[in-house]
Amino acid sequence: MLKVTTTNIKSSSGASSKQNVQTVARLEHAALHDRSFTDRLSQLVTRVAGSGPFIGIHVLWFGGWLIVNSGKISGIRVFDPYPFTFLTMIVALEAIFLSLFVLTSQNRLAHDADRRAHLDLQINLLAEQENTMMLRMLKSLCEKHGIKPQAEGDVGMFLENTDLHKLVDDLQKELPGR
């Protein structure tokens, strides 16, 4: 007879959890390693552009630009008088390039999220198949030992394989905006 204790369960799940963490870490490292130069550059630029020091530098830069070009500091020649056309051009170009870097980073994040969602779906489908198989085995054991399940009708539907295509069709019909 197999004796299962909580100690056995904890130790085996602890080892399994550690392996899972290591596997996820390897997958993440591989994903980081597989990024293109553009993806790496975009991530760097968006990380820097989204930081507090970047905002501070811009506040100082724009403030200094406006003060210098207002003509209120003697000895400094105004090089971009009001309406600050040169500053406007620089800011517009910076906004264009920052937008492109942000979009590139978002595309990469979306790709990574899709990859993880596909992995989650695959794991969920495997778990569903394993659960169905375990229920079939449990039913066989119960029948062999003459034990009748209390909820025969409810158990029966879980013994069948899940029709993924039917589930998708049902979801498409029921979800709002479809």
Q: How many domain regions?
A: 1
Distance between the termini: 53 Å
The biggest beta sheet is recorded as:
none
Number of helices: 6
Can you count the beta strands? 0
Structure classification: mainly alpha
Shape label: elongated
List the secondary-structure elements in sequence, H or E: HHHHHH
Spans of at least 5 consecutive residues whose pLDDT stays below 50 are 1-11
β-strand amount:
under 5%
Mean pLDDT figure: 86
The proportion of residues forming helix, as a percent range, comes to over 70%
Query: How large is the radius of gyration?
Result: 30 Å
Keywords:
disordered N terminus, 6 helices, mainly alpha, about 180 residues
Structural features, described:
The protein has 178 residues and is an all-alpha fold. It has one domain (37-174). Helices cover 76% and strands 0% of the residues. It contains six helices and no strands. The protein has helices at 6-33, 37-49, 52-68, 85-144, 152-158, 164-174. The longest helix has 60 residues, at 85-144.
Give the helix/strand layout.
Layout: H1 6-33, H2 37-49, H3 52-68, H4 85-144, H5 152-158, H6 164-174
Helix pairs in contact: 2-4
Concise synopsis of the structure shown:
This protein is mostly helical and 178 residues long.
